Amino acid sequence: MFSLAIINAKLWFPPSSNVPNNPTAIGVIGDTISLVSDTESVLSKCDSNTKIIDAKNKGLVCPGFTDCHCHFLDGGLRLLQPSLRDVKSKEEFRSILQEAAAKLPEGVWITGGDWDHHKWGGFLPDKSWIDDVTPKNPVWMNRMDGHMSLANQCALNIAGIDKSTPEIAGGEIIRDELGNPTGMLKDNAQNLVSKFVPKHTDEYSRKALELAMAHVAERGVTEVHTMVTVDCACGLWPANLGKDAEFQDMEAAFTELSVYKKAHKDGVLKTRIRAALPIAAWKRLKEEIIDKEQNGSIGDDWLRVGCVKAMIDGSLGSHTSAMFNDYDDTPGYKGHLIWDPKLLEKLVYDSSLAGMQVMVHAIGDYAVNEQLNIFERVGKSLSEKMNGKSDFRFRIEHAQHMIPSDIQRFGQLGVIASMQMSHLADDGRWATAAIGEERMRTSWPMGSLLSTNATVVLGSDWFVTPPSPLEGIYSAVTRRTLDGLHPEGLNPEECVTVDQAIEAYTVHAAFAAFEDKRGLIQVGKLADLVLLDNDIRQISVDEILTTQILFTIVGGKVVY
After folding, report:
1. Which residues of 504-525 are buried (b: 16+ CB within 10 A; e: fewer)?
2. Nearest-5° Cα angle at 265, 263 to 269
3. What are 419-476's pLDDT values in tens digits?
4. Contact assessment for residue 501 and residue 472, using Cβ atoms and an 8 Å cutoff
5. Within 13 Å, how many C-alpha atoms sit on residue 508's CB side?
6. pLDDT tens across 175-226, in order?
7. Mind listing the pLDDT tens digit for each residue in 56-115?
8. Cross-sheet strand order for the sheet of 549-554
9. 88 Cβ contact partners less than 8 Å away, ≥ 6 residues apart
10. What stretch of H or E contains 69?
11. Mapping DSSP to helix (H, G, I), strand (E, B) and coil, where does residue 32 land?
């Protein structure tokens, strides 16, 4: 008998799947889908112990959504920390941090933030905003994209940063007209402060994980691809453009991984986690975890490791993404690379040869081009060495801006574009001013990528934007910006269908993770399902944002 059944339902299948007989029900035994059929057939195998969910011929049942790019534990931590995400003025900024400092003992760090300077006019904050209201607590507040952070004077003193501190390769210490640090540090320069931020206790980290799991379950997410401790608060930006990467302290990454492993051991995971560690840690990952796991396994259906991640450039919002030509609003400046490409290429080759999947953050058009070149060379070399193997499923995370000739290369090279359409909704408000209309035409080109048979997957980059697949679907379908200035969409020719967007969160997401047990409503697949109160294929696009998640099911168990 079934342990769980969903009846009288509209089930989502990829348009190309040609599922016969229009099934309306799903029967589940344990964690696996056992029957997809009509309601009568499913009910015939239910008893008093079966949990029955009656969809009443409304809404839509989809495979559980996968957020293909997030910072999962960091997202949970943000739920415990002061948020500056909606701040629209210096006064608000000061007030929130003053209130946070008043609740803390002297010396306790205030972290989090997620501010966006475009919400108060585009000028950067500096330590003078907050020094007088946080005199006894070090403050480390990151921009929402994680590519620059603000330190108060207390934090700068702890880090030993002053006028004489030299610049950092692949980063920048923002200074005033006298050369004094303003408290703002970009990209690799963030290491100077972040390495002094104390580690969280096990209890605090577990609480953050529990909050993160509940937060995404409420939004229909059943699996996350999490980029382990690569944000601004962990000190894992590549040291010296990667030249000293092998000497970096990677303990923060393995500490985060231990949080997931302990939760798995304790049986409390409610979200499936695929964890990507910093690429510089690949040897330790292989030696300490992969090689020591039973039968060389890299995890199970709940927690998997075996993929590594790097960042080749910064972000558009911080003007640190690497472009071929100058930023329109910053003549003479093209952004910068965070890694030396030759060093990164060697790590991509070595980690891939060891059997790991490689994901690389690339946002600027120069960075995307450089990373495609790296993947092309590495793929060719590995294929020659590994008797023709070619299925490495390299991923470019963000894949935000690109020159026209690079669009078709994703499909040709088998490189997966892991995109966040919610970034278009946000960054699209001011991106044209930064890079101009011509480059914007090939920015977030999801439609064009799909037309060239590239695999596109979608995520949120949470904590950067909310981990809501419905918001991501809406952004992919409409390409509207948050300021409402593009009602027909920013480059509307790049809009995709609702089905294509759902595929990016389900079918393609499973492919991008080498998973064959997820992504479809099909017998034998894991029972990861989400029930929406609207059939989002049949309603107006505006109603997508008001659609509710009624149930989120992971492994046959209702988690929301």
Report:
1. bbbbbbbbbbebeebbbbeeeb
2. 40
3. 999 999 999 999 999 999 999 999 999 999 999 999 999 999 998 899 999 999 999 9
4. yes
5. 24
6. 999 999 999 999 889 889 988 988 889 999 999 999 999 999 999 999 999 9
7. 999 999 999 999 999 999 999 889 889 998 999 999 999 999 998 998 889 989 998 889
8. 60-63, 529-532, 549-554, 557-558
9. 119, 120
10. strand 65-70
11. strand
Per-residue CA distances from 2 to 26, 38, 401, 521 (Å)? 10, 14, 48, 16
Closest CA to 79 of 119, 111, 107: 111
Question: Look-up: residue for tokens 């990952």?
Answer: 285
Identify the CA nearest to 79 among candidates 273, 223, 197, 214.
Answer: 214
N residues, the chain: 560
| 16 CB neighbour count, 10 Å cutoff | 8
* Residue 346 amino acid letter: K
Q: Which residues contact 256 (CB under 8 A, 6 or more apart)?
A: 73, 205, 228, 229, 275
Which amino acid does the sequence have at 401?
H
The one-letter code for the residue type at 42 is V
For residue 410, give both structure tokens.
């994703």
The encoded tokens of residue 452 equal: 């060239």
Cβ contacts of 532-535, under 8 Å, gap ≥ 24: 532/59, 532/60, 532/61, 532/62, 532/220, 532/470, 533/58, 533/59, 534/59, 534/60, 535/10, 535/58, 535/59, 535/60
Residue with tokens 């499936």: 272
